[in-house]
Structure formats: structure tokens, C-alpha cells
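Recall that a protein's primary structure is simply its ordered list of amino acids. Everything else, from secondary elements to tertiary packing, is in principle encoded there. The following example makes that idea concrete.
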Amino acid sequence: MTSGRLLLPAWLVVLAGCGASLDPKLVSAGRDAYLAEGCPACHGRQREGGSMGPDLRRVRRHWAADELADYLADPASHRQREARLQRLSRRYSAHMPAFATLPEERRAALAAYLLSR
């Protein structure tokens, strides 16, 4: 692995082409994860955002599924590298927590939900 990127499971690679429709079961599992992990506290029940966290309804503009799942595992490292995330960090009162202990499949489902319409 000379590129420094992790090899991704096939189901996550398929998700990376998020222009295609996402598996409804995966999206549903992702919605369950969104609710169970407390995401609505900052981002709203319908992903509309609020004073603590940004609107997530148009996440597709900035992320591919594999990148988003990686971000969910370690938001702080992405924040250090990306000016857009640094600006968001200054704008909202809560910092995005890391979901590194969340199983990879659950993070991928959460990413699928966030990328769904």
C-alpha cells in the first residue's frame, strides 16, 4: 500500500459512487445509527442543522461515501487538513465527535444515510 490509503471492502467501494442509488436497507440502517448515536442533538432530527452543528442535507456536495466514513472515524484529523472544516468548526458550538469505535459497517451505513436524499 504505497498510496497510504486503506483498502476498502467491496461494499464501501460500491458506495463511493454515490451518484448511483444507495441500498435502501443500508440507508435505513444508517438512519437508525444517526438517531442512536445522538446526531440529532447537533444536526437536527431531519439533518437540518442548528446552533450546534451544520445542516447535513447536502453532504453529497463535499463527500464521497468512503471519505465520509473515514471522516466519521476521525473528524479531528480531517479538520486539521481542510480549511472548509476549520471554518465550520469555528462557526458551530459543538465539535464533531469521533466514531472510531463504531463498527466499520455501521459507519458506512451512517455515511449512506447522510449521502441519501
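Residues 34 and 110 are 6 Å apart (CA to CA). The chain has a mean pLDDT of 87.
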